[in-house]
């Protein structure tokens, strides 16, 4: 195995995939390291589905670039219908996709970009000298090996690289470090989606207030949020206040997002062990509830569960700028913008049942500044995905998959630019970075 690269990307989720492709397309020698046997991060490991959202509330697309290319290439293979209206009205669009095809497409796109991939590999140590990462150490079935690079990108989701390097990190809420709950997602087959849609049209008071009931007869059902009455009556010991599931990818299939595991830390192995058991126990309870209480689920059964529990929030970096709730809600423009998003702040309560939602004002989009990708202290590290520099509240929007994809592309492009201009990530020409991102079809 080659042990010298220009750029090493750690974490093969949506951010890492797009960062590695972007850097590879800039003719850099790139290694992507992933701890599982397949790529896709939470999208495939934890069955996070569908992708939401590429658009603002009014329907303007603000995420394109490599993320949009992935959607189009999935469409060509019949593995995504593209962007569809969100039928619970929480956002404008959702993007269903087949995770099994995405796993394969991601590797093919990495190969096209000349990226080397190591799966089943876990970075657990690194060496820092003069605030510069010298190498990372990878643990695998093949033993331990050191891999060197000039530039590193942390797309681990948990800021693992930043944390190991000694860069400052934050976790959860400021006052108590509690994070959003973990969720074990699962799929069911044998679901009658037409029956569910008919029920929604007949009982609008029992569903999320923003559901587009007038358009519903003409829209394919993509998302259902509600059945408040049934959920309340069933009184399951799960701290949620509603039924939530998403249609697809198959015609009789749904992805259920209803389990809620609270007061555990996604960076502590004992907590993760507890969470896996608790999440799977809740899956059986929720599936039983759906079959017995919800019209359309009478003949349904569990077809799959996440390979691991889904993690909304864990560690994140304390970067050169911390994106705030106020920045997001005001749709505040930044001179160093490297990506946009139209997803609202969506905090699943760390304790209690509810959700704290705040919509983006103005044109419905907000800027993600480049400085949120740049950690303090370490000179050759960039961060992308869930662990960029935000407040607990702002993380509740930037954590979403399309945002992670966009920020990943920006990080890969920035790392390549830093090498080309012999600059550190904190001192690159951000205008040149923006020019390249726009040239590569990103929306700024």
Would you mind describing this structure in some detail?
The protein is built from 12 helices and 20 strands. The chain is α+β, with helices and mostly antiparallel strands and 444 residues long. Strand 6 (122-129) and strand 7 (132-140) form a beta hairpin. The longest helix has 25 residues, at 269-293. The model has no long low-confidence stretch (mean pLDDT 97).
Concise overview:
The protein is α+β, with helices and mostly antiparallel strands and 444 residues long.
Radius of gyration: 21 Å
The mean pLDDT is 97
| Total strand segments | 20
**CATH architectural name of the largest domain:** 3-Layer(bba) Sandwich
CATH class of the largest domain: Alpha Beta
Any idea of the CATH topology of the largest domain? FAD/NAD(P)-binding domain
Unreliable spans are: none
**Gap between N and C termini, in Å?**
39 Å
Percentage of residues in DSSP E strands:
15-25%
Number of helices: 12
Based on CA inertia axes, which overall geometry fits?
globular
State the share of residues found in helices, binned by percent: 25-40%
Q: How many separate domains?
A: 2
CATH H-level superfamily of the largest domain: FAD/NAD(P)-binding domain
Structural class: alpha+beta
Largest sheet: 7 strands, mixed
InterPro entries: FAD/NAD-bd_sf (IPR036188), HdrA-like (IPR039650)
Protein name: FAD dependent oxidoreductase
Keywords: 4Fe-4S, Iron, Iron-sulfur, Metal-binding, Oxidoreductase
Summary tags:
444 residues; alpha+beta; FAD/NAD(P)-binding domain; 12 helices; 30% helix; globular
